[in-house]
Amino acid sequence: MKLTLAAIVLVAVALLTGCKDTDPVMPDTSASSSSEHSSGTEHSNTMPGSADKTAELTLTVYKTPSCGCCKKWVSHLEQQGVVAQTKNYDDLSGIKTRYGITPQYYSCHTAVSEQGYVFEGHIPAKYIRQFLAESHLDAIGLSVPAMPLGSPGMEVEDRFMPYDILLLHKDGSARVYAHISNAAMQ
C-alpha cells in the first residue's frame, strides 16, 4: 500500500490524539484485570468455528492502562454485544509473542477469544464474529496492523483511511481477510 505524505501525517495525528487518555492513569507494573467488563457468568469452551451470532462472545483484551483508543475499541465491542475483559500491562510484547503475532502485524492491543484465537488491533466486532463462525484450521486470528484512521476506536471526526483486515496463519504469514474501503463496512 502506497501512502501519501498527507495520509502519513493524518495517521501520525491520529496516533498522537486518538491514543492519549484524557484521564491520567498511573501505570502498573503487573497485569490487572478490569472486572467492570465481565458478565460474571461461566462460559463453555466451544470448538473453533462453532460460534454463532446469538452466542455470547467474550474476549480478553490486553492493553496498556493509558491507551485511549484501546478504551474506545473496547466500547465499540461492548456496543456490539461483546463481553470484553480487559487486562492492563505496561508492555504487551510478551503477550504478542505468546500468541504468535509477529511484529509486522502489531497494533496497540491484543484480544483473545475463549477458543484461543487472537484479534490484534482495531478490528470491527462484526468481522470477529464472522471469523469465529467460520472454520480456519491454519489460522491464529485476525489483525489490523498499525492504527488506521477511522477504524473502530480510531475515529477522528469523519476522516477515514481504507484498510485491510488480515488473516494470520500459524506459519507467520498473512492474507487479506477483508478490505474495508469505507466506514459503513465496519
TrEMBL record:
<feature type="region of interest" description="Disordered">
    <location>
        <begin position="26"/>
        <end position="50"/>
    </location>
</feature>
<feature type="signal peptide">
    <location>
        <begin position="1"/>
        <end position="22"/>
    </location>
</feature>
<keyword id="KW-0732">Signal</keyword>
<feature type="compositionally biased region" description="Low complexity">
    <location>
        <begin position="29"/>
        <end position="44"/>
    </location>
</feature>
<dbReference type="Pfam" id="PF04214">
    <property type="entry name" value="DUF411"/>
</dbReference>
<dbReference type="InterPro" id="IPR007332">
    <property type="entry name" value="DUF411"/>
</dbReference>
<protein>
    <recommendedName>
        <fullName>Metal-binding protein</fullName>
    </recommendedName>
</protein>
<dbReference type="InterPro" id="IPR036249">
    <property type="entry name" value="Thioredoxin-like_sf"/>
</dbReference>
